[in-house]
Amino acid sequence: MTDRLKGKVAIITGGVAGIGLGIAECYVREGAKVVITANHNVEGGKQAVERFGAENALFVQQDVAVEADWKKVVDATIEKFGKLDVLVNNAGIGGGGQPIEEMPLDAWNKTMSVNLTGNFLGVKAGINAMKQTNNGHGSIINVSSVAGLVGLPMAPDYSATKGGTRLLTHAVALSLAQRKIDIRVNSVHPGWIDTNIIPEAYRDAILQTIPVGRFGEPKDIGEICVYLGSEESKYANGAEFTVDGGVRA
Fold first, then answer.
1. How far from 6 is each of 50, 57, 173, CA to CA, in Å?
2. pLDDT of 115-141, one tens digit each?
3. Are 123 and 140 spatial neighbours (Cβ–Cβ below 8 Å)?
4. What element of type H or E holds 225?
5. Three-class SS state of 119
6. Which residue spans adopt a coiled-coil conformation according to this UniProt entry (predicted)?
7. Is the whole-model pTM more than 0.90?
8. Do residues 159 and 151 touch, judged by C-beta distance below 8 A?
9. What is the pLDDT of residues 24-62, one digit of tens each?
10. Catalytic residue numbers?
C-alpha cells in the first residue's frame, strides 16, 4: 500500500535508528516528507537521508529536552517543506535500570528531561507549528510503552515517564478537542521491540514472556503510526494503541 500519507510532512524525533527509523521508513514508503532528529547519532541521520533521498527527508540534530532545539527543528521543517502535519514524539532513553532507593537524582532527572519534558516541548512546538502552517490541523503521536500501562520493577524512572506521557496525551487531546482545535493526540505503547535497548543477557528470558513468541519489529510500530498520521484515523483522539505481541492481553 502506498500514498496513505501523500502530501503530509512529519517530524519524527529519534528517527535515525530503532523504532524511530522504522516509523520513518513506513512514512516515506507512504509518501510523506520526513524530518528526522537525533542528539548523538549524527552519522545515522546522514545515512537515513541518503537512503530516503534529500527530496523526501531532512536530518536535524536535536536535544528534545532543549526548547531552543525544538524551534530549530520546526523552523528547518517549515523552511524545507512548508508546513507540519504530523509530529511523532519518539525519542527516549531507557533509564537507570536500578532500584529507586539506589537511584541518584541526576539519573532520575535525565530520564525525566528526555522522556517527559521532551514530549511536553514537542507537543507545545507541534501544536504551534500546526496552527501556523496547517490551519490548526494535524496529528501528534506520543510513543509511550507498555511500561506506561504497567510498572517495570527495575525501571521506576522509565515507567514514570511513560505513564506521564500517557496522561499528557489524554489531557492535551481533551484540551484541543474542547477548544475546537482539529489536532488529534494519541499514544502508542510498544512492547518488546527488537532493538538494542533490549539487554542481550535478558533476551531469552524476555522472549518467554511474549505470548506470540517473538520480538516485535520497528516497522510494527511504524505501521500503527502510519494509521495515526493519516486521515484514516480522523476519529481516533486521546486513545492508546498497544502493540506488544499480546503481553497486556
1. 20, 14, 24
2. 999 999 999 999 999 999 999 999 999
3. yes
4. helix 218-229
5. helix
6. none
7. yes
8. yes
9. 999 999 999 999 999 999 999 999 999 999 999 999 999
10. 158
